[in-house]
Amino acid sequence: AQSVTQPDIHITVSEGASLELRCNYSYGATPYLFWYVQSPGQGLQLLLKYFSGDTLVQGIKGFEAEFKRSQSSFNLRKPSVHWSDAAEYFCAVGPNNAGNMLTFGGGTRLMVKP
Amino acid sequence: DAGVTQSPTHLIKTRGQQVTLRCSPISGHKSVSWYQQVLGQGPQFIFQYYEKEERGRGNFPDRFSARQFPNYSSELNVNALLLGDSALYLCASRDRGEEKLFFGSGTQLSVL
After folding, report:
1. Burial class (CB in 10 A: 0-12, 13-18, 19+), B58
2. Mean pLDDT to the nearest integer, B55-76
3. A94: which strand partners?
């Protein structure tokens, strides 16, 4: 069975500091990997996705993520955090023919200090 | 263009009642899925529909059912509500051949 673990429930960073959110997955084949962001009272917005090819993928809002097969990880990074980045971040995994059937991690709540 | 729209935005029910949640996908999207998000947790897959047929079902009891209409809108029904059904219910749509899901803002269901 596939699963996603986000080890950090809460993270607080200062505005302008760098950010790394961790994601580890368990899946038997090559997964489709996603990072979504959710602001309070909102649905989820896709930040980036990885299917194949270059293991460093760029997303919206200055985010990037690196796929490391040997570590079963797909960590999200941003070099300089803005106050508007405060939100909940979810890593998700799906099979090649996932359609809409994603498995999400428990999420990491990001707080940004001024 | 309008995004994925869900109604109602908030709902309060009592245990044992039945509830119907509605979702309109982005125009042109034929695939709709439903997720349950309990407070403090990530979304959990409930159903996927494509072209009015069920294409996938998550680990949810038979109290949960759904359908998709000819205009590709969808309804999620939950019978015999339990306190544990209190959650944010998210609908997502997807264009054919694309892996990106577009989520609605959800329906917040509270069961008292």
Report:
1. middle
2. 96
3. A32
Kindly report, residue by residue over A13-64, the tens digit of the pLDDT. 999 999 999 999 998 777 889 999 999 877 899 999 998 888 899 999 999 9
Q: For residue A98, list chain B residues with Cβ-Cβ distance below 8 A.
A: 99
The amino acid that residue A94 corresponds to is G
pLDDT-derived band at A98 (thresholds 50, 70, 90) equals low
Q: Do A101 and B41 touch (CB under 8 A)?
A: no
Q: How many CA atoms lie within 13 A of B31 on its CB side?
A: 16
Indicate the average pLDDT of chain A. 92
Asked whether the beta carbons of A92 and A50 are under 8 A apart, the reply is: no
The single residue listed with the structure tokens 């997807």 is B94
pLDDT at B105 over 80: yes
For every residue of B41-106, DSSP letters joined together read: S--EEEEEEETTEEEEE-S--TTEEEEE-TTS-EEEEE-S--GGG-EEEEEEEE-TT----EE---
CA separation for the pair A3, B14 (Å, rounded): 33
Residue showing tokens 């069961």 = B111
pLDDT of residue B1: 59
**A10 in B contact zone (CB under 8 Å):** no
Distance from CA of A31 to the nearest CA of B (A): 12
Q: Tell me if A88 sits within 8 A of A109, measured CB to CB.
A: yes
B41·A51 Cβ contact <8 A: no
Which tokens belong to A22? 């961790």
